[in-house]
Amino acid sequence: MVVLSKIYTKTGDAGETALGNGSRVAKHSLRVTAYGTVDETNATVGLARQHSTGEMDAQLAAIQNDLFDLGADLCRPDMEKDAESEYPPLRVSETQVQRLEAEIDVMNAALEPLRSFILPGGSALAAQLHLCRTVSRRAERFSVELATVEAINPAAVKYLNRLSDWFFVAGRIANDGGKDDVLWVPGANR
Q1: Closest CA to 136 of 30, 61, 28, 45
Q2: Which 3 state secondary structure label does DSSP give 24?
């Protein structure tokens, strides 16, 4: 159980922060940037939830919880030591990736195929979901970059890749099943 009795600690005043294994790194390290952008994604999901209801809201709530799992995963290096750890760290699982895929498949089955690229917008919820999509893509890029220099959980990258697809399809659902999608018109303003 997490207990936060004091919010500020002053331990980061010199530009360093602690990772999940207790080691300290610069706040601008790639690992901190990756999990910080996952946190930013979570905040955008919180904004989207201001416009969501029913099943979509329940799915977004599950995604928010997954994003905390993902942040915990990315803030804990030393994957090779997981097996010998007294308290194995939380890692994103293939099951979480598969859940997103199943939800994407259900939503996508209700949509007409796209015949044009779409612009972010339409309903308030769709616009927020497109923001979630772009921020989650940034989190994915940072995580992929991190994976080139340090070992990370491959399911973390898969999750972020599926998540941005989930947000795209959900944005179409939020636009009256794609009927209110804003279509891109190439060269319309030349």
Answers
A1: 45
A2: strand
Domain of residue 158, CATH code:
1.20.1200.10
Q: Extract the tokens encoding 26.
A: 């610069």
Give residue 123's identity as a one-letter amino acid code: S
Query: What residue type is assigned to position 139 of the chain?
Result: A
Residue whose structure tokens are 């207790």: 22
- Residues with Cβ < 8 Å from 179, sequence gap 6 or more? none
21 domain-assigned: no
- Chain segment 106-160, per-residue pLDDT in tens: 999 999 999 899 999 999 999 999 999 999 999 999 999 999 999 999 999 999 9
pTM attached to this predicted model? 0.92
pLDDT of residue 25: 83
Provide the 10 A C-beta neighbour count for residue 80: 8
